[in-house]
Write a structure and sequence with these properties.
By secondary structure, the protein is mostly helical. It has 24 helices and two strands. The N and C termini lie far apart (62 Å). Strands 1-2 form a two-stranded antiparallel sheet. Mean pLDDT is 86; it is low at 502-508. Helix 6 runs antiparallel to helix 7 (120-151) and helix 22 runs antiparallel to helix 23.
Length: 508
């Protein structure tokens, strides 16, 4: 084995050990879903910062964002305003969810919906939507690992299966503590890799002026008609991101609402790194790695996703290639673990306990969650091994369209009960069907050309589907109110939504 493989294996072994050691970190009984799936809700500002960073900035971010810039140009930079928009939204909204979840012992967003609206059906739909949107996301983390393994010169599925087995083992053993501890190593490696890349690669290419001069002009600016697509992709992605189960799991594991707010003030530091990562797409264009015969096999197999690994293979010594590729692979393990835990929490709390074993003990509930997390990862592995990668990417686009349909029940529900649960169910159905149809009509591309008279507005299908959802939900809620139809009793109290600052000042 060359130096790159040795370094990669050593770092992978390090995080594997940390994954198992994490079971003893802030030790508590992991035979309780609150401890296994949320780490006892005891993470402070520093750990939460690493956990959320590892949760939201995935291997697909480090591979797909520069790949999109490499392939289509400036449109790929929509990820920057989207990450800047999402943190103020979370700063305002999610301390309320943390507060009510802490007081009632909610583990998932569906737990909150069940209590808020008294509708098992609505809670089930939110849970199923979360699981459905998460599965292709887990699969894409494994795709990231597969690209890295291919760049190291390994062929076949065995290395990916080994990585999956390690991930499954320490997630089962340590729960959320494992990705939280590993996220610290992952972030350090990512920062080292990105800083080295944005210094060394432009130096080899003659500076940033030469990099941008070598990029085709059509890649530097948004093309006619892309403005609306850019804006709606950014806004729709920002509204959807923290509705994903793994993002809610990261939020609910914090030890206070103040911790969440501090992290929303600190996490934009990742946006700076994301801008630098996106610029790697331009560096790949300037380097000409896509036309270099040395990397032809990689591009033939993985497409633009191979652009970043090819950059490191070309410009860095083997030992640092091992560091960089390990950073990407570990960047896949952390979110994959959190996603599988979040999906397992949803299945166990909102399907298994709700419909199959209402009388299950905490230990039985935790055991089912551990097994469910294995099934999620196994399904994702089968998805990667049995289907061409292009289908994984297409379905991931549907993930955002699907998960954003839970916004009225979860986010608006944190502020008002005026939306009727039946109207929310109807709005969800229309949004899911409409969004899926829009994507399917465009061969599962994210952008849908909305025709309004003589105007055509190409935009993110998720946002258009959400508008349909809201229109139906509001209209039917007003009709229900006019007819005197009342929903079930709200099991939460206004005081449950008070944040730390509200309690301190005595305001609601």
């Amino acid at each position: 084995m060359n130096a790159a493989v040795w370094v990669f294996v050593a770092l992978f072994a390090l995080v594997t050990v940390l994954g198992f050691v994490a079971a003893r970190w802030r030790a508590a009984s992991l035979d309780h879903l609150d401890e296994w799936g949320l780490a006892g809700r005891r993470f402070g500002t520093v750990v939460t910062w690493f956990l959320l960073g590892g949760d939201l900035y995935t291997a697909y971010t480090f591979v797909a964002v520069p790949a999109l810039v490499y392939g289509v140009g400036a449109l790929g930079f929509f990820a920057l305003p989207y990450t800047l928009m999402v943190f103020p939204i979370v700063f305002v909204v999610f301390p309320r969810l943390w507060s009510v979840a802490r007081r009632h012992g909610f583990v998932t967003g569906s737990d909150f919906v069940r209590a808020r609206y008294g509708s098992p059906t609505l809670a089930l739909l939110v849970a199923l939507t979360g699981i459905l949107a998460t599965l292709p996301y887990v699969a894409l983390q494994l795709v990231g690992i597969e690209v890295v393994i291919g760049a190291l010169g390994f062929s076949g599925d065995l290395p990916l299966i080994v990585a999956f087995t390690i991930l499954a083992a320490y997630t089962y053993t340590s729960g959320l503590r494992a990705p939280a501890l590993i996220a610290i190593v992952k972030d350090l490696l990512i920062y080292i890799t990105v800083i080295a890349a944005v210094v060394v690669i432009p130096a080899h290419l003659g500076g940033y002026a030469q990099v941008f001069a070598a990029v085709p002009p059509q890649h530097l600016l948004l093309q006619p008609g892309q403005g609306a697509a850019f804006a709606t992709l950014a806004l729709g992605s920002a509204l959807a991101l923290f509705l994903y189960p793994h993002a809610i799991t990261g939020i609910l594991s914090a030890n206070s609402g103040r911790t969440i707010k501090r992290n929303m003030a600190l996490l934009p530091a990742y946006s700076l790194v994301l801008a630098l990562i996106a610029a790697l797409g331009y560096m790949a264009l300037a380097s000409g790695v896509g036309t270099d015969p040395a990397y032809a096999a990689g591009f033939a197999q993985y497409g633009p996703n191979y652009a970043v690994p090819a950059l490191f293979l070309r410009w860095f010594p083997p030992w640092f290639v091992g560091v960089a590729l390990a950073a990407i692979a570990i960047g896949a393990l952390v979110p994959a673990a959190i996603m599988s835990i979040a999906a397992a929490n949803l299945y166990t709390r909102n399907i298994y306990r709700e419909y199959f074993r209402p009388d299950c003990t905490p230990a039985q509930e935790a055991q089912v969650a551990k097994l469910a997390s294995l099934v999620v990862k196994l399904g994702a592995l089968a998805f990667v091994l049995l289907l061409p990668q292009k289908y994984a990417i297409q379905l991931q686009l549907l993930g955002g369209i699907w998960i954003i349909q839970t916004l009225p029940a979860v986010i608006i529900g944190l502020y008002t009960r005026r939306l009727h649960h039946g109207a929310l169910i109807a709005g969800w159905a229309v949004g899911m069907a409409g969004g899926t149809w829009m994507a399917a009509s465009q061969h599962f591309k994210a952008i849908y050309p909305l025709h309004l008279g003589d105007f055509t507005i190409p935009g993110y299908a998720a946002l258009y589907a959400l508008l349909l959802n809201l229109a139906v939900t509001v209209a039917l809620s007003l009709l229900a109110q006019a007819l005197g139809w009342r929903g079930a009793a709200d099991q939460t109290d206004p005081a449950d939504y008070e944040t730390d600052e509200d309690v301190a000042t005595g305001s609601a």
